[in-house]
Every structure is written in C-alpha cells, then in structure tokens.
Amino acid sequence: MALVLQGATFLHQYLGAFLHSAPQKSPNALKLGVLSSAQINAAAVIHPVETHPDVILYSIASRDAATATHTAKQYHFTRSHDSYQALLDDPAVDIVYISTPNGLHYEWAAKAIQAGKHVLCEKPFTSNAEEARALIDQAKEKGVTIEEAFHWQFHPAAHAFRHILESGEYGRIIRTEAIMTASPGVPKGDIRWQYDLAGGSAMDMTYALSFTRYALRSQLPKTIHSVTARRSAADPRVDEAMYAYLTFEDAQGGEVHSRIYTDMARAWAVGGLVPRFWELPSIEVETDKAIIFFYNAMMPHLYHYIAITDKTTGKTKCHRQYQGGPLWGDVTTSDGARGGQSAWSTYRWQLEAFVDAVRGKTPAYWIPGEESIWQMECIDRLYRAAGLPVRGEQADAKE
User: Fold this and answer.
1) In the beta sheet, which residues pair with residue 80?
2) What's the DSSP call for residue 97?
3) Order of strands across the sheet with 79-81?
4) What are phi and psi of 328, to 5 degrees?
5) Which residues are 176's β-sheet partners?
6) What are the angstrom distances between the C-alpha of 22 and each of 56, 92, 96, 111, 178?
7) pLDDT tens per residue across span 269-295
C-alpha cells in the first residue's frame, strides 16, 4: 500500500507543479546532495525541492555511475557523483538526504556529519537505538542539523489531530490502535525482507508506532504485554508482520492501552481475491468521551479525515486540515504565504521545517533527536519481546 501511496504522491506533486510555476531560487540557495537512487527520492525530496526557493538540486550519487548520471539528467540536478563518498567530499554540498537501505543509514549519516553536512535521514533513523544515540551525539559535537524524515508529522493534519486530542474536550486517552499494512504486499525480492539491511515490518512500517507515540507524547511503553511476530519463511529473523500490545503512561500517570499491527504481506480480502487498497495507515484513539479516528495519517496530503464519534450520542463529525492549522497557521512560509499551501505534500512541509532549522530559524514543527532515539529503543524492545534479534546485531539466520 505504501507503494500505491507513493505513486499517488508522484501524481499529486506533478499536478501541483503543472498548476503552479516554480519559484525563483535565492542566490545563496542550499545545495542538496542525495545519497542513493531510491524510488522514494522523487516524492520525498526532488519534487519538494523544486517548489522551495531556498534549495537547489545539486547532485545525486549512486553506487552505479550510469544510474547517477541518468537520474541527474532526468531531474535536472546540477551534476552527479559516482559514489556516496565523492558526493560527501564535494565542498559545494550543504545538505544531504539519505535514502539508502535501512541498514546503511547510520554509516552514511555518520560520514555526512563528519563531512560537515546537514542531514535529512529517511526513517527508520538507524538500525537500532545505540546507533541513533551515536548519530545524535556526533551531530551535536559537529554542530550540524540532523533530522529523521518522519514526514507525516510535519503536515497540518497531524497537528490538528494532536490539538483535538489535547483540547480537553474529549477527556483523557484510554486506548489506541494503529495499523499499517501492505496489500497486495511488499515484493519478495525487495530489500525490506533482508535482515542484514535492517528489514522487517516493524522497521519499514514504523509509522504505526510513530502514530501511537505521537498521539500520546510518550517516550517508551510502561509495559510490553505481548509481541507476536509472523516470521518470514525465507529468513526467520525477519518479521513479516508484528502484533504488539503495550501500555503507555500518560502525563497524569494514567494507563493507556495500545495495540500496534504492521504487516508487509497482508492477506487479501474476499477470500483472497481483493487487495485491501482501502486499508491505509491510520490510528484510532478512544478517550473518555469519544472515538477519534485519523484515516491515512501517513500521507494526509492525498486524502484524510479525522472522525470524532461521540460515545454518548453516536454522532460523528469530521475534520480535515490541508494547510495552516495549530502550528503553521501564523507562519509566513517560504512561498510568502501565511500557513503554506494546501497542495503541499507531507514531504514539502518537512522540507520547509528542515530548511528553516538549517538556516538557524525556529521551525514550526521539529522532531528532536531524543525522539528518534526513543523510537528506535521502542522498536528494539519489540524485537526482543518477540524473540527476534535487534536489527544491526549479528544473528544466526537459522534461529
């Protein structure tokens, strides 16, 4: 399903570019270097950069020189590099976007930091919490900006969702259920099935955990009641699916019961005949007074709703937020508008905040480094509870 959403985002951004002219770039615009030629690049950073006046597509690097040259020409980069290290050694590069396989995030983010580059690193941030702590420490020591690319959290809809939860109108949170699945499923030859590259559903579909922790403003679960992994037949170290039942503690010391479900090979519906295209990454939150459901929390720019159902009357009202909102509403964004543009994707909102941070401004929203550490620590704990090795650790493939 993530591939379908990415495809829809490509179309969304293409239409946006067609309807709106590209802005004139500032004379000292930040020069972006992209490490890897991953499919996600176009949606995640290339198209967002095209609409930001303070960033230019400077270079892309691939382990295959021909691929780098082709991609640079296709998307109008200034140049290409035939290796990741060559790009990092280029003094003209200001910021680096890392979309390598999960297992390589730490290595190349660390090298980018040492080269003095600001880093936007795809999720999951690293293979494990130990690597995450090391990266944050290195970035602080070097004085550069590093951010985990949990793009959904930068969108106005996410901020509206949290504002509703924290408004006090619906009472305290009692329960959460978050889901992210892939139907028809992640292709079997995909790198996300490889343990050595930090694959697995809890890693790739880390959004479900992110939805939960974001809603609760929680660091780590108080109790892990149960974690069940459906292991890959090809490599039992890799979780094809993960089911977790956790308890978090809210700010008042109350307990919140949370269930998380991720699945890279979700069974089709109607007796295995129909892919579950409607099953988009979402979270349901039960409070004292209401059931609040955020549909398509991962890519709300395409379509979303926040449905609020009163537990007493059964009546439901829906809220949608494509621009402005609690955090962006009073901000004059790089396009000169107040509250940004409704056509912006989650990735474009993320870039807006990232550039502000690099420029020394206070972004409207930011994911602090400690948050990325806690996210990885939680994933590590889920793997241990499921009897699976933590990513990045050596383990026997026959376990």
Assistant:
1) 60
2) E
3) 79-81, 55-61, 30-35, 95-98, 118-121, 146-148
4) -90, -15
5) 258, 285
6) 12, 23, 22, 32, 37
7) 888 888 898 999 999 999 999 999 999
Residues 236-268 as b/e (b if ≥16 CB within 10 A, e otherwise) read bbbbbbbbbebebbeeeeeebbbbbbbbbbbee
CA distance 209 to 147: 18
Whose structure tokens read 């280029």?
A: 90
Q: Architecture of domain 153-323+370-385 in CATH?
A: 2-Layer Sandwich (3.30)
End-to-end CA distance of the chain: 30
Paired with 96 in beta bridges are: 33, 119
How is the chain split into domains, by residue range? 2-152, 153-323+370-385
Provide the CA 333 distance to its chain's centre, in angstroms.
22
Question: Cα separation of 344 and 13, whole Å?
Answer: 8
Residues 6+ apart with CB under 8 A from 168: none
**Which CATH topology does 2-152 take?**
Rossmann fold (3.40.50)
Residue 323 CA to residue 325 CA, distance in Å, equals: 6
Q: What is the pLDDT along the chain (399 residues), one digit of tens a residue?
A: 555 555 565 556 555 555 567 899 999 999 999 999 999 999 999 999 999 999 999 999 999 999 999 999 999 999 999 999 999 999 999 999 999 999 999 999 999 999 999 999 999 999 999 999 999 999 999 999 999 999 999 999 999 999 999 999 999 999 999 999 998 889 988 999 999 999 999 999 999 999 999 999 999 999 999 999 999 999 999 999 999 999 999 988 899 999 999 999 999 888 888 889 899 999 999 999 999 999 999 999 999 999 999 999 999 999 999 999 999 999 999 999 999 999 999 999 999 999 999 999 999 999 999 999 999 999 999 999 999 999 998 755 545
Rounded Cα distance, 131 and 105, in Å: 9
What contacts 24+ positions apart, CB below 8 Å, involve 115-119? 115/88, 115/89, 116/142, 116/144, 117/33, 117/88, 117/93, 117/144, 118/94, 118/144, 118/145, 118/146, 118/354, 118/358, 119/95, 119/144, 119/145, 119/146, 119/147
d(CA 167, CA 357): 28
Q: How far apart are CA 310 and CA 307, in angstroms?
A: 10
Could you tell me which residues are beta bridge partners of residue 255? 249
- The single-letter DSSP state of residue 231 is E
pTM score of the predicted model: 0.94
